[in-house]
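G., before I forget:
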Amino acid sequence: MPDNIDHESQITSRNSQLLTRNSLLALPLLFLLLFYFYPLGEIFRVSLTWDAGPAPDALLARLFGPATLRTLGFTAGQALLSTALTLLLGLPGAYVVARYDFPGKRLLNALTTVPFVLPTVVVAAAFTAVLGPRSPLNQMLMNAFDLAHPPLDLRYTLGAILLAHVFYNYTLVLRIVGGFWANLDPHLEQAARTLGASPWRAFVDVTLPLLMPALAAAALLVFIFCFTSFGVILILGGPRFATLEVAIYRQAIDMGNFPLAAGLSFVQILCTLALTVVYTRLQGRLARPLELRPRWITQRRPRTWGEIAFVLANVGLGAALLGLPLVTLAARSFDAGLRYYTALFENPRGSIFYVPPVAAVGNSVKFALGTMALALLLGVLTATALYRRKQGWMLDALFMLPLGTSAVTLGLGYLLAMARPPLALRGTPALIVFGHTLVALPFVVRNVMPALQSIRPSLREAAATLGAPPARVFAEVDLPIVWRALAVGAVFAFTVSMGEFGATSMIARPELPTIPIAIYRFLSQAGALNYGQALAMSTLLMAVCVVGFVAIESLRPPGSEW
Amino acid sequence: MAFLELTDIHKTYEDAPLLCGATFGVERGEIACLLGPSGSGKTTLLRIIAGLEAPERGRVSIEGADVTTLPAHRRGVVLMFQDYALFPHRTVAQNIAFGLRMRRRSRAAIAARVAEMLALTGLEDFADRDVNLLSGGERQRVALARSLAPQPRLLLLDEPLGALDRNLRERLLEELPVILRRVGVTAITVTHDQEEAFALSDRVILLNAGRVVQTGCPETLYDRPHDTWVARFLGLENLFPARVRHPQQVEAAFGVLDMADTTALPEPGADGQLLIHPWGIHLEAGTVNSFTAQVTQRAFHGSYFRLTLAVDGGTLHLDVAPGQTPPAPGETVRGWIDPTALRWLEVNQK
C-alpha cells in the first residue's frame, strides 16, 4: 500500500512543521509563565489568604461598587480622549515622517523618542512648569495686558492630563504608523488619484485601510498606556482624578488594603485583556500582503511651498508639544549655573546612600542593553511563531498582557514571589532585566509582526525553491526586510528599560540604582538643590537616551539599505 | 520511466476538489507546458512539483526517486514566480547569486556564474542595480537568471510572460525558449494562453478541472483535439453534430461529407461531433464535399480576412488572404471542404 504510506508521511511532515513553529514559542511562554503569571499568582494567593483583610463578600461589594465603576469610567474616558487626540495630532506627523526627507530628520526622529523614557515624575514636573502660574505663557500675558495675576492655571485639569498623554504617546504614532507608511508604495495612492479620487478620498479609500494594522497597533498601545497611566494622573491631575492604577496604588501603599488592590488589578487586567483580544482579532482581518518599497523611493524632499509649509507646521507642532516641556526642564536644570550638576558629585553629609550619577547611568545602560537583547530574542521568536497562525490571536493577546498590568502590582508580585526558591532572584540585576523585558516584549512583537505579515509569501517560497532551508529563509529574506521594524522595537525596548520606575523601585537593591531611581531620591528630599539635581539628572537621562537611539538607528545590516 | 512523474495527484482547496487524479510525466531536457483555463489547478500542480504544497494523495518522483515529502529546498527544483518574487533588499547580482550561495559555492565560482547568467540574459550592465527600479522585462530576465544560476535539475515557470506588455511579450516569447534550450534545462511552464504554450514548449499538457485531458506536441494537439472541450479551448470553432453514415462518410445538417482520416471514426450509426479545420474550407467550385452558404460577417485582421458563413446547423469560420477579394456580408457563396481537414470528435459529458 505505497499510497497510504505516502499519505501518512505527508501528514507527519506537516505535523513536524507545526511542531517546529510551536517550539519557537516554548522560550517566550516559559518566560511569561515564570515572570508574569507566577508573581501575579503569588499576589492573588497572598491577598486572598491575608488574615487582616475584610470579609470576602464585603471585598466583592467594594470591588463592584459605584466608586470602582466611577474610576473605571474615568479611566476609560480619559484614555479614549487621549488616544483620539494623540492620533489626530500624530497622523499628519506620521505622514511627514513617512513621505518627506529633510535636513535634520534623523536627529528629530531620535529626539521625538525622548519623552517616552522620561519618568512620569519628571514629566509631571516639567508640565507643571509649563502649564502652571509661573509658565512662560503666563509671564507673557501678564506683561502684555498688565495683569496682576496669572490668567492661566491648567494644573489639576483634564486638559493637563490629556496634554501630558499626548506628549508621552505622540512618538508612538509617529514611529509605528510613520514607520509602516514609509514603506507603503506611493503608487497605490497615485493609482487612486488617476482613477478620479480626490487626495482626501484616495487617503480614506486606499491609504487608510492599508495603514489599519499599524494604526490599530498604535491606537491600542496609546490607549493601554493611558488606561494604566499613573504618575501623570497622580501629580498633574491632583486628588480629584483617579485611574484604576492610581486606585491600586492608593489601596496598596496608602491604605495597605492588599486584597482590594489585588482585586482592582484583576479588573484592570481583564479590561486590557479584552482590548487586546479585540485588537488582535481585528489585526488579522486588517492585514493585507503588501509590496513594501524602500524608503528612498517613497520619500522625497518637500518641493512646493505648500509641502514645505506642511512639513514645517508638523515639525513645529511636534517641537512645541514635545520640545517645550523638555526645554523648560533642561533650562531650569541650569537655573543655578552648573551648581545642580556639580552637586551630583558631592556628598556633603557623607551619606551612605549617596549614589554617584555615573554609576546610575552605567546601571541603567547595562539593564537597558540586557533588556533590549532579551526582548529582541523573545520578541522575534514570538512574532515568527504567531504571524501565520489563523488562531494566533489568543497567544498574541497573552503576550500583550504585561503591558496592561500595573507596575505597582508587578513589583509587588516580584517581591512576594522571588524572595524564596524556586526563583530566589530578589535583589539580583537579572530580575530587573526580566521585569523590564516583560514590559518591552510587546513593543518588539507589535512592531515585528505586521512587518512579517507584509512580506509577500512568494519571496520566502522563491528562496526555498532556490535551496534555502527554513532557518536560512528567515535569515536571508525575513530578517533584512523586517530590520527596520526590529530596530524600532529595539529602540522601544531600550527606552522602556531606561525610563521604567514603578517596578524597578520595588525590586532594585539600594546599591544598584537606575537613573529614574536616583531622580526619585532627589525629588523625595526637600529643597531647591535636590529639585535642581533631579532636573539635572533628568537632563542627563535625556542625553543618554538620545545617544542610545542614534546609535541603534544607525545600525544597519549589510545589504539592507532601506 | 520519465524524468519527472506525477501519479494520481489529488488536492482540495477550501473543500472544493482542485486536482482530481492528475497524472503525467516529463522527459529529461524537455520543455513542457501546463495549459488550461484559470481554476484548472495548473499553478497548484506546479507548487506541488516545487514542494511548496503537499498533495493529499498521489506521488511525485524525480529521476525515479519519490520526492513527495521532500521539502522544497532539497528538491533542486526552482520555481520562477509570476510576480518574479525578486528580493527587494538585494541587488540584481545578489538576487542571481542567491541560489549559488545556498549551495555553498566558492566566492569565485559565484562571481563567475553570475557574470555568465548576466551575459546569457543580456543584463551585463545591471549587476549592481536596485531590482525595485527595473522595468517589467528586466525583472523577468533577472528572475530567469536567478532561477537558472544554480543549474536546477528542473525549472518551473509560472505564467512567465503573464505580467508583461504585448510587444515585450512577443519578443520574450522568442527569446525565452532560445535561452532555455541553450541551457538545456528541463522545464515546465504554466500558462492559460495557447499561443504562449505553443511557442514555448515541446509538449503541451492540457488540464481541465483538475485532470489531464490531453498531452502532445503543439501541432498534434491542434490537429487532433481529443474532444470538443479541447477543440473549443484551442479556438477551433467549426464544430457540428454529426452521424457516421459509412466507413468514410459522415452526415451533418448541411450535407454528407467524405472523410480522409477515418482512424477515429466509430461504426456507422454512431453520433458525435465533426470538426472542420478552417484551412480545408475553399470558396470555389469543387468536386467533393461542396456546400452553399451565406456570408454573415467579414472582419479585417491585417494579414487576412476572417469570414463567418451560415450553413444549415451552424456556422463556418475561415480565414482568407486579402489578395483574393472576399465576398461581402449578405452574399451567397459556393465552396468545398477538403476531406483531409475533417476530424471526428468524442462528445464531452459536460
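Chain A has one domain: 23-42+82-329+338-553. DSSP finds 26 helices and no strands in chain A.

More on Monday.
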